[in-house]
Write a structure and sequence with these properties.
TIM Barrel; alpha/beta; single chain; globular; 254 residues; binds 2-phosphoglycolic acid; 8 strands
Length: 254
Amino acid sequence: MFLNIKMRRPCLAANWKMNKTIPEAIDFVDSFLPAVSGIDDADILIAPPFPSLFALAEKLAGTEVRLSAQNVFYEEKGAFTGEVSPGMLRDAGCEYVIVGHSERRQYFYESDEIINRKIKAALKNGLRVIFCIGESLSERETGKTFDVLTGQIRNGLKDVGGEGLIVAYEPVWAIGTGKTATPEQAQEAHSYIRSKLREVFGGHADAIRILYGGSVTPENIDSLMACPDVDGGLVGGASLKSESFERIVKFKRG
Ligand code: PGA
């Protein structure tokens, strides 16, 4: 077992994906906010679908919970039908944005280069970025995990400054499958990612938080958070119910 002494401020982020109407999102925060009120030793984030952002920003103002978007485009404005700019996200009350989620890579063909442009545009506009990386099952089974992570980090973070950056390690085989990485697998990947971040950012890499994502639940959050290089969680399915995400935010401190 690892000792749970966190040198980086924990960050627990709810990625709702394409779930919840505006009234459902408001219902969630109405029960969640009182439950997490007073928690001041972790960053707590909710990433709802775009239409709920503005309504939640009003609800979350002055609370411990911050707002994140799930995606962004890299241009400021113009003829890009269906896209949303970093400035628009700021305008709607967002402080964070998730970039490069595996579902965006897989279903919307986002390449490392597109992801790199999005990260740079978001940071330039004062958003904090949760940059997602992770290997597929076949990549893991054929021993390519570290090569895949290295490529995603080098290409995704080309010419990016480390300020405002959070990395999320999300093994694709663990997302929505109920198959979580073991704490040992997570720690191994996270410590490898940190070593690569050191190559890019030098000593600043020790300040960058690396979240684990992929079937995080109230049952496994404590053992994942006990890993020295796991600084938080990016939570999909288990963040949709207020009580469940509350328990995750209230993971066992060391
Ligand atoms: P999951 O999703 O917790 O439902 O596995 C995590 C994510 O994709 O961010």
